[in-house]
Amino acid sequence: MIKTSPRRLAIDGDAVVKEALRRIEQPSRRLFLQRSLTLGGLSLLSGCAIVDEESAEHALMAVSRFNDTVQGWLFDPRQLAPTYPESMITRPFPFNAYYGEDEIRQVDADSFRLEVTGMVADKHAWTLPELQALPQTDQVTRHICVEGWSAIGKWGGVPFSNFLSRIGADTSARYVGFKCSDDYYTSIDMPTALHPQTLLTLSYDGQPLPPRYGFPMKLRMPTKLGYKNPKHIQVIFVTNTYPGGYWEDQGYNWFGGS
Amino acid sequence: MTDDTRPIHPAWLRATHWLNALAVVILAMSGWRIYNAAPFFDFTIPREITLGGWLGGAIQWHFAAMWLLAANGLAYLLCNAGTGRLLRKFFPLSPRAIVADLLAALRGRLSHADLHHYNAVQRAAYLLVMVDAVLLVLSGLVLWKSVQFPLLRELLGGYETARRVHFFAMAALVAFIAVHLAMVAVVPRTLVAMIRGR
Question: In this structure, is residue A135 part of a structural domain?
Fold first, then answer.
């Protein structure tokens, strides 16, 4: 996730408010094309004012969808991300979200329930102790941000493929979506969800996941960029309907894999 | 010796040259905006000369133009090697010839009468920029899909080193373009030749 957001709004969970905000955001999305397309260099090269902004945006989005497909082909479910010795962990590990550190959400551990919906057999909501009782593993891997920087951290938790099989998820479905208590949302492809290094993370560096890193849990995928790794997960759903994502809906590439 | 009906640059070369120019301009300008999101040196690139407006927009431009660069570059290399032009125009090439032609150029004594013929400095520069473009594509692949190309990633020293390799390869390409454009200004006929073929 990246820290520089064009706006910093405390969004309420209400869908109507969200939709209204999304509409307000439209002009800022358009801004990048207005700025970029009026740059003289490009129109000079092509000899004309190439295209109107709307169709340029559509064309770039279409290429981004094509890039999703290519990344799906390139993704090898057995190819592991490199792991590192603990001495290489980046300290302090950077905080990142679409809001500032002063707005980190505090989730109450006792009342917390993880909801599981969509194409799954067992839809019972999970308490934190139930999740902690599942077999855990850990990994020291590199987190790569869409901004370019990277940092090495140590995450521990339940292999997500184990969790998916426990809840009887239909693994022939196309997407796994996430809704978070900080109003973030994102979604991933099923092959990545089943990747051996994809971890339903409950701990960071041997300690319970602190709020700044997404208490009570985040999904950690060393095969994807930071913004694909949701924190403060509240709802996990399995679906064939494209769920999009907070940044993805604004133009970040959906597959976002490395 | 010069057959006037023979084009200086065949049509496929002119087409790939200008498509490459378009791709490189988009990639460099959007790449600068991406660099600005997490600069690893003490400077950022002035916003006015970057493309994309915000990081997401810059990435969309970058990851669209990369296809043009790669496909066009591959077509260029295949045509160049397949037609024998690569061997004919760029070789033989010796360090001694490069030094001799460089000194001659600096004294203003290098002939540009026959544009069919590349001097040794041109040969070296064009070959280097071909290698540089390949390095840009390979290091870009590591940045885009570092997990999926482990051998390439390790050859380039890992993800973080690949970022620097990509940046310096860009800087080398931009330096080449600056000299290239200066040379075109000195011998404007070369621009006509790259457009009309002769």
Answer: yes
Q: In chain B, which residues have their Cβ closer than 8 Å to the Cβ of A71? A: 145
Digits of tens for pLDDT over chain B (198 positions)? 445 577 899 999 999 999 999 999 999 999 999 999 999 999 999 999 999 999 999 999 999 999 999 999 999 999 999 999 999 999 999 999 999 999 998 898 888 888 999 999 999 999 999 999 999 999 999 999 999 999 999 999 999 999 999 999 999 999 999 999 999 999 999 999 999 998
Contact criterion met (CB < 8 Å) for B145 and A74: yes
B114 inside 8 A of chain A by CB: no
The number of domains in chain B is 1
Strands A233-239 and A175-180: antiparallel
Residue B63 and residue A39: Cβ atoms within 8 Å?
A: no
Find the CB nearest B22 among A39, A45, A61: A45
Tokens of A132: 């902690």
* Residue B69: CATH number of its domain: 1.20.950.20
Considering CB atoms only, which of A34, A36, A144 is closest to B146? A144
Q: Please state the domain count of chain A.
A: 1
What residue in B sits closest to A41 (Cα-Cα)?
B25
CATH number at residue A148: 3.90.420.10
Whole-angstrom CA distances from A213 to A18, A208, A219, B121, B156 are: 24, 10, 11, 55, 31
Distance CA A138, CA A200 (A): 10
Nearest to B38 among A59, A75, A149 (CB): A149
| Contacting residues for B177 by C-beta, under 8 A, at least 6 apart | B24
Query: Per the CB < 8 Å rule, is A79 touching B56?
Result: no
SS3 of residue B131 by DSSP? helix
pLDDT in tens, A133-157: 999 999 999 999 999 999 999 999 9
Q: Do A31 and B54 touch (CB under 8 A)?
A: yes
Which backbone phi and psi does A236 adopt, to 5 degrees? -115, 130
